[in-house]
Amino acid sequence: xxxxxxxxxxxxxxxxxxxxxxxxxxxxxxxxxxxxxxxxxxxxxxxxxxxxxxxxxxxxxxxxxxxxxxxxxxxxxxxxxxxxxxxxxxxxxxxxxxxxxxxxxxxxxxxxxxxxxxxxxxxxxxxxxxxxxxxxxxxxxxxxxxxxxxxxxxxxxxxxxxxxxxxxxxxxxxxxxxxxxxxxxxxxxxxxxxxxxxxxxxxxxxxxxxxxxxxxxxxxxxxxxxxxxxxxxxxxxxxxxxxxxxxxxxxxxxxxxxxxxxxxxxxxxxxxxxxxxxxxxxxxxxxxxxxxxxxxxxxxxxxxxxxxxxxxxxxxxxxxxxxxxxxxxxxxxxxxxxxxxxxxxxxxxxxxxxxxxxxxxxxxxxxxxxxxxxxxxxxxxxxxxxxxxxxxxxxxxxxxxxxxxxxxxxxxxxxxxxxxxxxxxxxxxxxxxxxxxxxxxxxxxxxxxxxxxxxxxxxxxxxxxxxxxxxxxxxxxxxxxxxxxxxxxxxxxxxxxxxxxxxxxxxxxxxxxxxxxxxxxxxxxxxxxxxxxxxxxxxxxxxxxxxxxxxxxxxxxxxxxxxxxxxxxxxxxxxxxxxxxxxxxxxxxxxxxxxxxxxxxxxxxxxxxxxxxxxxxxxxxxxxxxxxxxxxxxxxxxxxxxxxxxxxxxxxxxxxxxxxxxxxxxxxxxxxxxxxxxxxxxxxxxxxxxxxxxxxxxxxxxxxxxxxxxxxxxxxxxxxxxxxxxxxxxxxxxxxxxxxxxxxxxxxxxxxxxxxxxxxxxxxxxxxxxxxxxxxxxxxxxxxxxxxxxxxxx
Amino acid sequence: xxxxxxxxxxxxxxxxxxxxxxxxxxxxxxxxxxxxxxxxxxxxxxxxxxxxxxxxxxxxxxxxxxxxxxxxxxxxxxxxxxxxxxxxxxxxxxxxxxxxxxxxxxxxxxxxxxxxxxxxxxxxxxxxxxxxxxxxxxxxxxxxxxxxxxxxxxxx
Lengths: 794, 156
Known about the structure:
By secondary structure, chain A is α+β, with helices and mostly antiparallel strands.
């Protein structure tokens, strides 16, 4: 390990600009002559639009234009597309209703977009938006999964009877039923995976710009994947060819999935910029973010686990209803299917698994991937269910996990749910986590807490996740409408400094540092001589962006492959310069040497030769030193680990305090441990948020979003979480050259069941066996009261 | 109708014509181009917009520009001395107290005010002080470490 290479906790290159207020986020950008857009949004969850009167708004001070859905339709603007088509269990395609950028006939959730007011100032646009008169005929909404599935429920879409988008299944149902017939024990659980609102702290923003001289469009936007936005918006919504459309996602203030998707506002400002021939800027207020950013989770699940007399898992049977919201967001259909059911083996050898998923339309904001996306839902049900199985069988909850772990010598391991794991050592992560969490000393701590009147509990989660999405042919065969490779272009400049153009995108993950470390390590170039460029389709090659913890496993591999090409070409040039055979050239620490001699030349000298090819093998080799690689992964990567949470519950108030949190994760090779630990910290805080604090709530009758601001939606604050004990065990990914697996989501995946298992453990002496997320003081207090009332009655 | 406001921002006298309803954060971002101060919510909770007015941390989204007439305003852009970071900025860098960077200016400005009031805050005091600053990336772990370290260097 070098000071700046792989494994070094290098301080981040990007921090200086962020710490001095010199970051450039989308809302920090202003274009000459810029106008401001304000979106008129529906206050109703479901209503027919009888008419939209924009006359008063058009005549308001500063207003340049007001556009409605009719204007977009007249101009041939298409709907916002969905990027994944799930085929149901009967072989039929999912129901895929249209998603117009501005709706003209019916609104389907609070916040649905009806019109855009464009004015000289933001205040003028907002003031004028108040003057847009929409005549609504209100309809009853279907607000929750349960409401939408009732007989006679309001229909969100006529083309989706019963509000079913698809009814999908995976696994051998007959084999699972047979295994249940043989079971000595059956553990079952009913789970609601609470709906979450992502809440990256930077609200979404977009600026459309049009150059009449060239006919070129530019969209500045808060995106995790600008090339994906260019493809979706250019090809499907606005019919702008790629070469006339640039999408630039500059500094982006957090994403967590919510900035993957192509949103209507991006198309609206780009289209309007062309129409008005002036730049048009839109920035969401937080209230708009709550009602227009795609939400996450929202599953209702019944799951059962069959066990033999020794506590070995025989079969798992899962039924899940998943909320899609009112429209299909970009990747929504894939989340409760291919990113969920494929994870149901977890870390265990369960031989038979059957999963049935119904995706349900409701009159709510679209639901899509949020940090973890499908894997937290799978992990939560599995790890809660295993705790129930421990109770049902009387086997210790650590022991029952050990008995069912996939052994470390069983890899590659083919699960019954399609995927094949490449590596892992779940006993090792468990052992380390138990040691760090001082699991064995828990009873002493419980006694001590009891003396203070507190109920103390400890919970465990031994999770697995899949990331590095994904082999294009595999995802294509199950409905993905895109490839999922990544790209990198490496430009060695004449004096030996290096610019990397990557299709990955950083919105907090620190690519500029981690990717620079890869270059420093492979090419021997000082860190300060490396520049990482991302986010601008005018600069970077076509790439799929950052989500699903894929940047290093897929984007990093593309970078390694491009550098391999640089080194290969460099060897040819060095061989010519040193009059040696190419086969004798070795490259290490930035120097090409002739094997067995003291002859040596540097990468900088080779680069200069490549650009000033006076003494150069010009017949065999092109000048220049710049290489590009696209990498399509051969498998998912499979991080896993163990999270242990310890809580204290105040029985008088129901308040849960997380007093200790231990995470031991196997994320493969760690490039920058400081950044990796930071990713785990953030993920765990979001997981604790889901378990104890956060829940999106709609009024069941009206479909109003009750948690529409930070006053009503409980974001984790600094005093809601402890300092975390984070460490790593390492098994290498076997199918990428770095051996990396991915770390962006493990914290949010492993932690919620650890927290709830701890809360249930704390309350078990009172007779409580389950508690729903989020375990708020009210819920915990009510569970305690109910258990005590029942105990008194018995 | 516009009004004229005069104040000192990062040591420089500034004067601007604004609407009476203009917020301090709008004046900073839109009139003065100081885009380091961010807006992350509309209910005065996230704290991305924290600046110092007359030496104390305030949420600039909740203060009219007119209320700051004649005041001394310091923003994140006014902390570093050229390339030399303020000790609190340096502590955030050293301890990886930031990821996406969006909440960071508010966090740093808030943290400095904490240390100005309490030179040796405990972990509990730091966490409680940060009630008005939301971070979605870091889980606060490294922010707390950074503020602890920043307090020590500011004191030293």
